[in-house]
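Example record for the data management plan.
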Amino acid sequence: MRNMLDADGDFDYIMACDCVFPPVYGESWKLLADSVREVLSRKPETIIYLSFERRKGDQLDDFFEYCTNNAAPAVSCERILWEDPVCIYRARRA
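Corresponding structural encoding:
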């Protein structure tokens, strides 16, 4: 992520869809959370939209807890849409 940010600059918006599902992606959700924090540490105005389909064992609660409580910068994740089973969250610097 750092190399991409160094090469391409900052982003105003980032969209990610269905990126947290351990049976398919393993523990990569921790890398996603770290990337969210890295982007927001470089440009606090960036808004990140994350869309997920809720499934059994999706570990979304673990992802959001890790993303918002683990390290600086402080990140706010707000659910802005819920149409079962799909939800969309907006992440930004708190």
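Summary line stored alongside the record: The chain has one domain: 2-93.
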